[in-house]
Amino acid sequence: MKAWTGRWLPSVRVRAVHPPPFHGGFMRFTAIAIGLFGLILSGCGGATLLNAVTTEKGLTVERGIAYGQQKRHRYDLYRPAEAEPQALVIFYYGGSWNSGHRGMYEFVGAALAREGFAVAIPDYRLHPKVQFPTFVEDAALAFSTIKRDAAGDLPIFVMGHSAGAHIGGLVTFDERYLRPHGIDPCGTVAGFIGLAGPYNFDITNKWKPVFPPQTRGRSQVIDFADGRHPPALLVHGLDDSTVHALDTRQMDEALRRAGNPVTIELLEGVGHIDIVAALSWPLRKAAPTLAVVTDFVRKNSKMAPRCGA
Fold it and tell me: Name one Pfam family in it (predicted).
């Protein structure tokens, strides 16, 4: 991991997430609900827990749309039913590059669609069946197909949580993934949104099987921060013990040093799971994730896709 220079920039925002007045009961409920969601992510609970309280009223949802030939080359598409969407968000979920499926994140699609956006959630192949960079190549293929078939004239945003932020970051910042599909990221990606992303991590023994030696040198998103890139929103909880917020601080600094527009939100009292679970309406007060994502998408939807300041 590269050393952080320790420079703090004036635009870095650190938010304290304050509970509402009924804070004792709310905090107990939040802790239980987030704990249950953590079980879902680890495969120990029912994947319908948060989705069970997610209604599709006012939305149109298409499931299992093919973007390629493999079994996991499928995506779900959420849209507001009564109005034209303002933008398209492609959300890549996390799961340590070895777990997860699009059906676990209905609450993400529904939450963003209710804000007026179309949302595509693709699956991608996982380790141990594949290694890096195959899952990133799958993500780029999904982007290409979704752009062709579902985006129309909508601005396209790439969003990811945890390993999904790593995958989405490489799709956005390393041109080798979209260029083979005839796509220029600077002219196509309206913005990148990373939630608790590992952008500059050590390939320890745990991760060596996922990132083989022959491709390991291309695995760190921060190495592609130089040059001109689309605007980025980097959000991280300061209580995250899975992916340290230092990754986001370093990525923010690297993008700014190269002259790229970045918004960084560091959330006090927010952990690794909280930051995405807060997109579900029962946990909305656990973190301001929906508000900061929505603000970023609306602001940048008004401008043509661009790179650099």
Answer: BD-FAE
Nearest to 246, CA basis, from 199, 211, 192 = 199
**What does the pLDDT look like over 24-39, one tens digit per residue?**
444 444 454 555 555 4
Beta strands per DSSP E along 48-107? 59-66, 74-80, 88-92
pLDDT number for residue 53: 55
Q: Indicate the average pLDDT of the chain.
A: 88
Alpha helices in the chain (DSSP H): 23-41, 106-114, 134-146, 163-173, 185-188, 246-257, 274-277, 289-301
For residue 218, CA distances in Å to 39, 143, 177, 287, 295 come to: 32, 20, 11, 32, 32
User: Does domain 47-301 sit in CATH 3.40.50.1820?
Assistant: yes
Q: Which phi and psi angles does 89 have, rounded to 5°?
A: -110, 125
Radius of gyration from C-alpha coordinates of the chain: 18
- Give per-residue pLDDT as tens, 89-125: 999 999 999 999 999 999 999 999 999 999 999 999 9
190 to each of 101, 231, 289, how far by Cα in Å? 25, 7, 19
Average pLDDT over residues 50-67: 81
Output the CA angle 210-253-264, nearest 5 degrees.
Answer: 90
Q: Where are the domains of the chain?
A: 47-301
Q: Are 274 and 237 in contact (CB under 8 A)?
A: yes
Cα distance between residue 169 and residue 78, in whole Å: 22
Taking alpha carbons only, the member of 76, 180, 187 closest to residue 133 is: 180
